[in-house]
Design goal:
mainly alpha
Length: about 475
């Protein structure tokens, strides 16, 4: 058997790298399960804790507000002080908050602890992604990340079904108890992973940038959940401007603004954020339509939705196999395919069309969502992987609040679903958005080609002109 030279041999990851992969898989499952399993149980929580209809959505909003606004800060903290350390701290904080949530005697206390849990999730995810990126050899971390995200995809899709069943037959508190062993497993695995940090980073922390970024993202999340409240939008714009000014002046910025001039990174983050919104729409609209319009039980709708769940979970490993140079074209193709699937689910008649369309869309959205995390890590400097993952995860978390508000999932129901066999405008809007963004990404891919074509034509014309003059 021929032996490849050392330059062509594929490096094998050691056991510490496997621990980093296991830590991210367990941590991501923990976060996704907690985030999506609780929403169907909100009406039960409100009745048991005697909360008001206005305060109940804060159980979800408080979590999203903390997680979405703190992720850029958490990602940079991992680069500065160690990704393993930040991930371990995040998983411990998340698990302790889950225990406090399960024991909460009142709605205000539950909301307060959910904010604490969101802070734990903010520390956990960006640090986990960066930890895995550095634990594996360059160019091979994508597949490991994709496999870990595939497991998290199962938790994402099965979360609403599990939460509904637990709330109905056991207790809504069981949703939180379920995440405690996952958080413990993630913390133990992270402790065995290799530590990494940015060796060129200055230990001075950008306090002004962190305050402006956290405030801007917090205002943005609140505005996305309440689009009529334009004061939040104005606050987000003002704080965003202050953030840009602070980063330009800071000798050690929280986020290097050059990151937003990285076209593949911006394209993958924007496409992944839209894919995340469309995935949230699928998670709540399709089971709701199966139950309300077709008379299916919660159990039957959950079992039938296993096909989209598997398709979504397979998307993570598939995304890990995409080469970095092909990530943006694949993202555009996935968004286009998801638009077709969502359109089929919207305008098809009967439950089979709804399930077939949603399964196709879930597979494409799973790849797109995976590319938003694996692809962005491959197109940025490894030293600032935590910073990049923090910004990307903040965008994904903020957009998740859009469909929690638009579909009414944050209050236990779904608006916009049709009364016939289809899903109505609740899926038509994300289908149109996916198609539009796919077209924009395709156009951005053509932009670099035009100057090259013009240059070649100019050189050919110059050569032709020279021959003519010589003749």
């Amino acid at each position: 058997m021929p032996v490849l030279p050392p330059s062509e041999q594929r490096p094998r990851p050691g056991r510490p790298a496997r621990w980093a992969q296991a830590a991210l898989a367990a941590g991501a499952c923990c976060v996704q399960l907690d985030a999506f399993a609780l929403n169907p149980a909100l009406p039960v929580v409100r009745d048991e804790l005697h909360g008001s209809a206005a305060a109940t959505p804060w159980i979800v909003s408080g979590y999203l507000l903390a997680a979405g606004s703190l992720m850029p800060v958490a990602g940079r903290l991992g680069d500065l002080h160690g990704r393993r350390r930040m991930m371990t701290l995040g998983t411990v904080l998340f698990g302790v908050a889950a225990v406090l949530c399960a024991l909460a005697p009142s709605l205000p206390l539950l909301v307060a602890v959910r904010v604490l849990q969101g802070a734990g999730g903010a520390l956990l995810m960006p640090a986990g992604l960066a930890l895995l990126t550095h634990a594996w050899p360059p160019g091979h971390g994508q597949r490991a990340t994709g496999r870990a995200l595939g497991l998290a995809g199962l938790a994402t899709v099965c979360g609403p079904f599990i939460g509904g069943v637990l709330a109905r037959y056991i207790s809504w508190r069981a949703v939180f108890w379920l995440t405690v062993p996952l958080a413990l497993a993630a913390a133990l695995c992270a402790r065995r992973a290799p530590e990494s940090r940015d060796p060129e980073a200055r230990q001075r922390f950008d306090t002004a940038g962190a305050a402006a970024a956290t405030g801007a993202l917090g205002c943005l999340v609140r505005w996305l959940e309440h689009p009529a409240a334009w004061g939040w939008a104005m606050g987000a714009a003002a704080l965003g401007a202050l953030f840009v000014r602070a980063e330009r002046r800071s000798p050690a910025p929280l986020v290097d603004l050059a990151l937003f001039r990285n076209r593949p990174y911006v394209a993958l983050t924007a496409g992944g954020a839209l894919a995340n919104s469309a995935t949230v729409a699928l998670l709540y609209v399709v089971p709701w339509v199966l139950q309300r319009n077709h008379g299916w039980s919660v159990r039957d709708a959950g079992v039938a939705f296993l096909a989209p769940a598997v398709a979504l979970a397979v998307g993570g490993p598939a995304a890990g196999r995409v080469r970095p140079a092909a990530a943006v074209p694949v993202m555009a193709g996935c968004l286009a395919l998801s638009a077709v699937g969502l359109g089929w689910a919207t305008y098809g008649t009967g439950a089979p069309a709804l399930l077939m369309g949603s399964t196709g869309a879930a597979g494409a959205l799973g790849v797109a969502g995976g590319l938003a995390l694996t692809g962005t890590q491959a197109v940025v400097r490894r030293e600032r992987a935590g910073e990049a993952s923090g910004v990307t995860k903040a965008a994904l978390t903020a957009t998740a609040g859009i469909w929690l508000a638009v579909t009414g999932a944050g209050t236990g129901g779904v608006t916009g679903a049709g009364t016939g066999g289809g899903a109505g405008p609740a899926l038509a809007l994300p289908a149109a958005a996916c198609l539009a963004v796919a077209a924009v990404l395709a156009l951005t891919l053509l932009v670099p080609v035009v100057p090259r074509v013009r240059g070649r034509l100019g050189r050919r014309a110059g050569r032709g002109g020279g021959v003519h003059r010589n003749d």
